[in-house]
Amino acid sequence: MKKHAFLLTVAILSLVLSISACKKTKEQEPCNNKGKLCLENKMDSSVVITIKPINSQFTLQKDYTKCSELPGNNPYTVTIATPSTSRDTTIFILPCDNKLIILR
Predict the structure, then answer these.
(1) Whole-prediction pTM
(2) What are phi and psi of 40, to 5 degrees?
(3) Checking DSSP bridges between strand 47-52 and strand 74-81, what pairing results, if any?
(4) 45 exposed, middle or buried (CB, 10 Å; 0-12, 13-18, 19+)?
(5) How much is the pLDDT for 88?
(6) Cβ neighbours of residue 51 closer than 8 Å, sequence gap 6 or more
(7) Which of 9, 13, 61, 78 has an alpha carbon within 20 to 30 A of 29's alpha carbon?
């Protein structure tokens, strides 16, 4: 009887150890699930850039580049405004993207 109890205890202990050794680890997203969007101004004047839906707005001077790190797998509407015109475009940013928009 003692032999069966010992074998049962060893079996239960090995089962508990094998289950606890297989705990799940959280998989990390590549690039922290972020992409980069860079805007380069090659126009003759400064422009105002608006990125929605994050409502980021900044002025981009002539011959200057600005990069923004954005959450991936999302579409963003980029509005480019000068004193005489206003244009917009929608761009989809994926994780680990490095996109460059050159304004001319």
Answers:
(1) 0.70
(2) -120, 125
(3) antiparallel
(4) exposed
(5) 94
(6) 37, 57, 68, 70, 76, 77, 78, 79
(7) 78
Give the pLDDT means over successive 10-residue stretches in the chain (104 positions).
68 69 66 93 94 93 95 94 92 94 92
What is the per-residue burial (b if ≥16 Cβ within 10 Å, else e) of 9-28?
A: eeeeeeeeeeeeeeeeeeee
What's the pLDDT at 14? 73
Q: How far apart are CA 88 and CA 79, in angstroms?
A: 4
CA gyration radius, the chain: 27
Burial degree of 88 (CB within 10 A; 0-12, 13-18, 19+):
exposed
User: H/E element holding 33?
Assistant: none
| Strand pairing category for 64-71 and 34-41 | antiparallel
Q: Which residues pair with 77 in a beta bridge?
A: 52, 90
Spatial separation of the C-alpha atoms in residues 86 and 47, rounded to whole Å: 10
